[in-house]
Amino acid sequence: MSLEKSVLDIDKIRGLLNSEYGLELLDCISLELGSANCYKVHCKEGVFFFKEYQSEFTKDRVDNEADIVKFLISNDFPVAEFIKNANGQNSVLYEGHVISLQQFIEGKSYLNDLPHSLLMESAKYLGVMHSLLKDYPMEISMDYDWAVGFSSEAVSQKFNGLLSALDENKSDPNYVRIHDDLVFKMKLMDSIDAWKEYFKGITYTSTHGDYTACQLICDGGEIKAVIDFSSAGCIPAVWEIMRSYIQSGGVSRNGSYFDVEDFSLYVKEYMKYAPLTERDLEAMPYIYLFQLAQSSYGYKEYLVTKTENKEALLDFGFWRTDICREIYKKASDISVALLQVA
After folding, report:
1. How many alpha carbons fall within 13 Å on the CB side of residue 62?
2. From CA 270, how far away is CA 186, in angstroms rounded?
3. Which residue in 18, 153, 236, 250 is deepest, having the highest Cβ count within 10 Å?
């Protein structure tokens, strides 16, 4: 779901396609993909993927994404090629938003319901991608220094602020669940300092940064391409692995049950293509918990910023907190099971 209202309309899109790319628009279809405003544009010259990034994205950031895609193409990894404009640029700045045009790849995308066979295949593509990108220069984030910078007291104050905002409207039908979730997350702050130590000695790799089912184009029971490298960076490999499993289909939207054995199979498939150390496997659930435990995403948008689609964002926040409860309960079992994979 898009997070910002588009600055474009059909006439502006037509004008941009013509002036920047020399293309004649025939039809434009809005796509419900991700957090940007995305369109499938049928032009006289072909079919393309037209993307209006959120206002926080800079042109340099999008151009870096295009460079990553170009690198992966050169290594026969399936991605959607960026189309250069008349001036040879990979992106255009228009009314405060970066615009890009890419190859359109026909196929089906999923949310959190990726069929199990494709879920396991996605582990393969993630491993191959990490193998290709391991030495690709990207800025490191989510490292030990980053983790140490978090204060459990500051995070607790953030949650207390949200509880105060919630108490201003006790008649809200979601009051009880929001209250219980925020109190649960505050209790996790007792463990967060210990979890910081797991960021030492793990594998950091350049990667997609948001590798989930909605970033995969599938067709005929196969993955055709990986799209949207706008969040790419150098982060803990284990964080992307665990998140990709959970948010692609490893845990359904209708429940939070986490199958430790099945996840072990996912990691085993990944390790056919990219190595992990025993330290990585031991640390994996705690690295994931560290980020998830302190996230207020969904609750803040619902209670404070009043973002568009706030109900859907709150539902996502509920789901992630249920996952947090499940992983917290099974963290030790997950580590033991993963070490057996090694």
Report:
1. 25
2. 33
3. 236
Query: How many Å apart are CA 182 and CA 331, to the nearest integer?
Result: 20
The confidence band for 3, taking pLDDT boundaries of 50, 70 and 90, is low
| Average confidence score pLDDT of the chain | 95
Contacts of 172 (CB under 8 A, 6+ apart): 166, 178
Contact 196, 144 (CB under 8 A): yes
Lowest mean pLDDT among 5-9, 26-30, 206-210, 335-339: 5-9
Instruction: Report the SS3 class of residue 107.
Output: coil
Please give the single-letter amino acid code of residue 246. Answer: I
Indicate the pLDDT class of residue 308, thresholds 50, 70 and 90: confident
Specify the pTM. Answer: 0.93
Q: How far apart are CA 90 and CA 102, in angstroms?
A: 9
Where are the alpha helices (H) located in the chain, listed in sequence order? 10-21, 59-74, 116-133, 144-148, 152-167, 175-195, 237-245, 260-270, 278-293, 299-300, 310-341
d(CA 321, CA 313): 12
Q: Which pLDDT belongs to residue 1?
A: 56
As a whole number of angstroms, the distance between CA 95 and CA 204 comes to 36
Cα–Cα nearest to 236, from 278, 266, 200: 200
